[in-house]
Amino acid sequence: MLKKAVICLSLISLVGCNDDNNDHSNSKQPTYEFPQILVVGHRGASALRPEHTLESYQKAIDDGADFIEPDLVSTKDGVLVARHENEISGTTNVADVPEFADRKKTKVIDGVTLTGWFTEDFTLKELQQLKARERIPQYRPQNTQYNDLYDIPTLDQIIDLANTNYKKTGKIIGLYIETKHPTYFQNQNLAMEDKLLQTLAKYQYTRDIAPIYLQSFEVGNLKYLKQQLDLHKSVKHAQLIQLYDEQTARPADYVAAENPTTYGDMATAQGLKDVSSYANGVGPWKVYVFKDAAMTETTSFIQDAHNVGLKVHPYTFRPENNFLPESL
């Protein structure tokens, strides 16, 4: 039986911000009580606004999300910004900006050859000249009306947004943060983990008040984050989530290390026990949880995970016809 269900929705959104940087007040902090069903605004309200924009996160909050979920990549100058991928030709207007035409490159990212424009080739100041666009206009044509209106947000701005909403409404909005391609960025001398923890510890809201989930499809960076969190206790309510891709695939850091372990191996009872040594929960693609496309029959994955003390946060459940089972 599901003790806690987490539904990652792709429809919810944004607003403005204000921080209390280094306020180390000893006053008693509010306690966050997790609802029975936790609604995560996956990339914000991405069915209603272009994903990973402040506007999308705000819409998610306005529509009732308990958490907002930014994916983080790095700029050339080491600033963490929200994009689904570091290749941004599909989510920004970069291809239409003449002064950046010579930044177009072909790279191999986690074994996949991609041609386009990459965040690590732009400073934050340069990225701030770009505007966000709908990533999948063939499925969300209504979102194209918002193309070229919204900026690419930094992690600091996202924290400020959540904090501003908290101050306005009293509702604590959690952050569910994914580090994208950590091994790749580490090899570019742009490792994200320390910067992420430093940023979270900088603000009272993320340091002391809000629940924080840190998720990754890789393993090594989660183990490093656990080590640092255990050592420094810098973010009080941070928990770690191991994400799962296709069963035959392997985490990118395992591929780099020639470790043959697949996500399928990590989904066995023993694999989940191993994951529980460094993570608080798992984020499986929903095919690990459901036996059929209609999502009517479940596997033993949730029970196996609960047996070793892991939370289960499956992804992604979209209330859009293109992504729903035919029966719905």
Write up what this structure looks like.
- This protein has 328 residues and is of the alpha/beta class.
- The protein has helices at residues 54-62, 124-127, 155-169, 182-187, 193-202, 204-209, 220-232, 252-256, 263-266, 269-275, 301-307; strands spanning 5-9, 37-42, 67-69, 71-74, 80-82, 105-109, 112-116, 174-179, 212-216, 238-244, 281-284, 311-312.
- It has 11 helices and 12 strands.
- Strands 1, 2, 3, 4, 5, 8, 9, 10, 11 and 12 form a 10-stranded mixed sheet that branches. Strands 6-7 form a two-stranded antiparallel ribbon.
- It is globular and about 55 Å long.
- It is 26% helix and 17% strand.
- It has one domain: TIM Barrel (Alpha-Beta Barrel).
- Helix 1 runs parallel beside helix 3.
- Strand 2 (37-42), helix 1 and strand 3 (67-69) form a beta-alpha-beta unit.
In brief:
By secondary structure, this protein is of the alpha/beta class.
CATH-assigned fold name: TIM Barrel
Q: How much helicity do the residues have?
A: 25-40%
Distance, first to last CA: 23 Å
Please outline the major beta sheet. 10 strands, mixed
Q: What is the level-2 CATH architecture name?
A: Alpha-Beta Barrel
Number of domain modules: 1
SS element count, helices:
11
**SSE topology string:** EEHEEEEEHHEHHHEHEHHHEHE
Strand percent estimate: 15-25%
Shape: globular
What is the fourth-level CATH superfamily? Phosphatidylinositol (PI) phosphodiesterase
Q: Name the structural class.
A: alpha/beta
Tell how many strands the DSSP assignment holds: 12
- Cα radius of gyration in angstroms: 19 Å
Low-pLDDT regions: 1-26
Q: So what's the CATH class?
A: Alpha Beta
Mean pLDDT rating: 90
